[in-house]
User: Fold Rieske (2Fe-2S) protein from Halopseudomonas laoshanensis.
Amino acid sequence: MTQPIDDFLPQPLCRLDELADPGSKGLMHQGQALFAVRQGDQVTVFENRCPHRGIPLEWVQDQFLDSSERLIQCATHGALFLPENGECVAGPCAGAYLTARPCHISNGQLWLD
Ligand code: FES
Assistant:
């Protein structure tokens, strides 16, 4: 049996208009849990894994931001991370980083580099 050709073509993570501004969205890519954060023109993608305990950050689907919507927040112990580079700036893993996945926008879609 042959595999459909679509299985070999790069697939976008999501459409840009699926990301609220500001907003965040959980994503699956090749079996790996990721999430995207949008703030204006800036979109960043990280692995959905808190450096404190190695667990997913969100308790509520697609909610990765704090109440100010300016910082990424881990729901378990409240660590706060900068959306631009994933640095933890407060909480039990201060100074650690989320794992960033380089990405770009093309044709209104979000792609991993
Ligand atoms: S598991 Fe994320 S702050 Fe503890």
Summary: The mean pLDDT is 94. The two ends are 31 Å apart (CA to CA). The pocket of FE2/S2 (inorganic) cluster is lined by residues 50, 52-53, 55, 74, 76-77, 79, 91-93 (CB under 6 Å). The longest strand covers residues 32-39.
